[in-house]
Amino acid sequence: MKSAAHKKNWPTVRLGEVLRHRKEFITIDELTNYRRPRVQLHVQGIVLRDEVPGAMIKTKMQQVCSAGEFLVAEIDAKVGGFGIVPGFLNGSIVSSHYFLFVIDESKLDRSFLDFFIRTPTFREQVAAQGSTNYAAIRPSHVLGYEIPLPPLAEQRRVVARIEELAAQIHEAHTLRHQAAEEAAVLLPSGMAGIFQKLGEKYPTRKLEELCDVVRGGSPRPAGSPLYYGGEIPFMKVGDLTKDDGMYLYEATASVNELGREQSRFIESDTLMLTNSGATLGVPKITKIAGCFNDGSQAFLNLSSAVTKEFLYYLFKSKTLWFREQLARGQGQPNLNTDMTKQMDVPVPPLQAQSRIVAELDAMQAEVDALKREQTATAAELDALLPAILDRAFKGEL
Q1: Which helix (H) or strand (E) holds 60?
Q2: Structurally, what CATH architecture does the domain formed by 203-347 represent?
Q3: Spatial distance between the Cα atoms of 333 and 280, rounded to a whole number of angstroms
Q4: Does the domain at residues 10-150 carry the CATH identifier 3.40.50.1820?
């Protein structure tokens, strides 16, 4: 590994020695279609913004981008609004609020520059230009920024090493994400297997024999101050589906007393199930009293033969089945209360139900822990590349 002292052998030059500002404009033809790029902030690359006919472009004098040029946004540069024009945006157009620079590739490797502009060393030089919200970057500023410039062969070696390490980081990201996704998929599958065996071992009863199945109500028109905005929580599908937890602790909307009359009120500690759309089949046990809309069902007057937690996991084991079966031949799958009432529910002794719930709680906890670990690992991996770039441009890579 090279020492930090190695950088002393790298001369530092101004970008003006390796870049040339190209300022050439064309007149827009109203009958021609033009692609326009979008320079993403925080050095996240340049993407296609849109493709529009010339008649829709107000400013008729535009610049044409060439692949491999360094593109800088006049105002957004201070928040990372710059990057290398990708090949698929060759020939796209930008206004005079952008600056295009041709790279002298006999002195500067394009990828070496692309990595350098992602470092704090470069970003700090850009940010130093002015302090107001409209402290626009000028071409002369860009040409005055400095870059360490080893020989081309060394630049290419550094680029290759960065790309190698970046690929390893990406692979680690992918593997960790796949592990979390696989665990999340295996959990419902495992639950389904458990309940299938229970159905073979113990007697089953129709759900309607174990509770009252009711659907919520939505005051119309939605959002009307006549019904909404009161003190009574109003639970929507999004509240039930926003996370994977068993319990619902809050609602994002509310209704008044008149709204309550147009909806359905349930007490705290009620089991619910979403019944329509792409998010149908998601169960929740509410820990608040309130009204709920017609996108969900609730299960009231539950028999002492089953527990809410046991039914919660039974529903959760069927979420994917609900969606697959009900989507067949329908644009918008819907689980109505009559269908839910006819569900077969295995009814083992309460002691066995408690044991199964405890086992499934433990399985869910393992999946949740893996997801948290994935999130933490992703943050750690995200921090690796900036550290690698920092070392690379200190001559330590």
Answers
A1: none
A2: Alpha-Beta Complex (3.90)
A3: 8
A4: no
